[in-house]
Design brief:
34% of the residues lie in helices and 22% in strands. It is α+β, with helices and mostly antiparallel strands. The strands form 4 sheets. Strands 6-8-9-12 form a 4-stranded mixed β-sheet, covered by helices on one side.
Length: 261
């Protein structure tokens, strides 16, 4: 799949229309299963129900959360297929990210749940597309700049707090998923052939967890974890509650440090 490398605003301009269409695509079955408006007290059963993101799960927030894993020195480097997978995963389960509303309830819901209530600019889906794209680009960039942690900062913090030499080649980084309490990682097979580090962020606790996976610890990652054959990488999904992957591998023994920041 194609790789993107560029600024936050360049990525947002590229992905804006696509991500809006993707939301409509991934909510199509949920829309069929929920033919009645989910607005409080509303009984509308219009066929034109709209997908509204729940507060804290707005599309710009989901995008910024994903990009935080792939930015270093203001430059985003990401596989576009990986972005799509993470974007879809951030909407699962759908009920935790989306509610189906008629147009009137959608407008009312947005007015009561504006992102700007958090001190940020509001995104209005009814305005001109070029203006909308600029608004979203500005908002995503602002969200990312307001975040305390990203991959570059995490590597620097881990090096200073542990005395280890950690860089992009021997480490992977993840923020907690937007809708699930998990970290999502996709290390290549080469990572398991060296001592490599997992830097996992807990933003609500202001903690960076530093794991060291010694060379040879996982000899057959293709049998230990789920695989992404299209990318030749392991798909590791770790619960923040117990540090265990969905396939049962426990990373707790490899936790070096929980660094508060």
């Amino acid at each position: 799949m194609a790789q993107f490398e560029g600024t936050i605003k360049e990525f947002t301009k590229f992905i804006g229309g696509y991500s809006r269409n993707k939301v409509q695509y991934i909510t199509r079955n949920y829309r069929k299963e929920h033919p009645q408006c989910e607005g409080e007290g509303c009984i509308s059963r219009t066929t034109q129900l709209e997908a509204a993101h729940l507060r804290g799960k707005e599309r710009p927030i989901i995008i910024s959360d994903i990009l935080m894993n792939f930015i270093d020195n203001e430059i985003v480097k990401i596989d576009l297929q990986e972005f799509e997978d993470l974007f879809i995963e951030a909407h699962n389960p759908i009920k935790n990210a989306i509610k189906m509303l008629c147009k009137e309830c959608h407008i009312k819901y947005d007015q009561n749940n504006k992102i700007k209530d958090q001190g940020l600019a509001n995104v209005d889906d009814t305005i001109d597309i070029e203006v909308l794209e600029k608004q979203e680009a500005d908002l995503i960039e602002e969200l990312m700049h307001k975040s305390i942690m990203n991959k570059g900062i995490a590597m620097d913090l881990a090096c200073k707090s542990s005395g280890l030499k950690i860089d992009s080649k021997n480490s992977v980084y993840s923020n907690v998923n937007s809708t699930k309490d998990v970290w999502w990682l996709e290390p290549s097979p080469d990572k398991f052939k060296i001592d490599f580090y997992m830097l996992l962020n807990k933003p609500k606790e202001n903690k960076l967890l530093i794991f060291k996976i010694p060379k040879g610890t996982i000899e057959n990652p293709e049998k230990t974890f789920n695989q992404r054959n299209d990318k030749n990488a392991s798909r590791i999904v770790i619960s923040i509650l117990d540090n265990v992957d969905t396939r049962g591998f426990n990373f707790t023994p490899y936790l070096l440090k929980e660094q508060v920041y």
